[in-house]
Amino acid sequence: MLEQQLLQGPGKLLDEHGELTSRGWATEPILECNLENSHFYALRFLQWSRTKIWDYYAVTTPTHFFSFTISNVGYLGMVFAYVIEFATGRYKEQTLTLPFAAGVELPRGSREGICRYKKGDISLLFMTSKRKRHLSVSWPGFGGTVLNAEVDLTEPEGHESMNIVIPIKGKRFYYNRKINCMPASGWVEFEGRRFELTPDSCLGNLDWGRGVWEYKSFWVWASASGFLSDGRTVGLNMGYGFGDTSAATENCFIIDGKVQKLGQVDFTYDNRNFKAPWRMVSPDGRLELVFTPFFERVAKTDALVLMSEVHQMFGKYNGWMISDAGERIEVRELIGWAEEHNARW
Predict the structure, then answer these.
(1) Which residues of 51-88 are buried (b: 16+ CB within 10 A; e: fewer)?
(2) CA-to-CA distance for 258 and 314, rounded, in angstroms?
(3) What is the DSSP string of 22-39?
(4) What is the DSSP pairing of strand 64-72 with strand 76-85?
(5) In angstroms, rounded to a whole number, what is the distance separating the alpha carbons of residues 331 and 316?
(6) Which of 48, 270, 275, 339 could make an SS bond with 312 (beta carbons 3.0 to 4.6 A apart)?
(7) For the segment 133-145, what is each residue's pLDDT rounded down to a tens digit?
(8) For 277-330, how does the pLDDT look when each residue is reduced to its tens digit (9 = 90+)?
(9) Which residues pair with 154 in a beta bridge?
(10) Can you give the pTM of this predicted structure?
């Protein structure tokens, strides 16, 4: 079994030489993200081009998936949103590609701060304070229509998240926080319809990423936030690809806000037919899931120095998991996603 090493903290992510002070995982973001200490090029002023930072939010409802992202990948900013209607497969997405990330602001940490982009009538604002997150979106002309949103996401007291620090070659690294199953309230307006969000049926996710990457990268990520038959919340977060995960993986599931840590998870899928069922199994016998896609989102970006191709599959998870306490948890028709991402950035 792959040993899972806990992060040592509190403290800073990087020392004065740009070396990681700790590597591993935790259920809280215990390390300060001091990216200004990164030091992997002899000419430090060139390092901004390899630094990648983003806040990716998603809300899963019984009928729709709504996603909003603000990012800065060094020489470009990427601001995008998308909407998927599960029953019909209706899908709209729009991306703004911003040279040198003009107009993009991202917070230093994941516990509090402001993340925003505004130009003209288009505005995305994500505010975080005291375990509450407010997403405000105004996007006239989105997908030929209008996308507006006022969404509140709450981290209940004691709600845990998956936090991981992994090294990448040559003083490169990735610091990531994934929060699943945040109760969501508010509303989203799209195509002339208003969708009310209530915490008994709607849950939010955050993918908060900060790191220094190699130019060519690859990863697989699987996630979900939903409810068990007994009303408890259940989340999934699993993946592999880039970086050195010998200290810890990001693999876990989350029951009622408590992280159940896994080591290795083996994925079986066909990248010539992403719509075929995927299988996720942990060799230690704690998880066995089959993911059956019903919708494929393909997102491609080709901006000279930056190339990105994502096949994000939405579907249903079925199978079982064994909790830390030994409880066998049955998963039935849990809506979530699994993706393969190739990038040169």
Answers:
(1) bbbbbbbbbbbeebbbbbbbbbbbbbbbbbbbbbebee
(2) 24
(3) --EEESS--EE--GGG--
(4) antiparallel
(5) 10
(6) 339
(7) 999 999 999 989 9
(8) 999 999 999 999 999 999 999 988 777 677 888 999 999 999 999 999 999 999
(9) 132
(10) 0.96
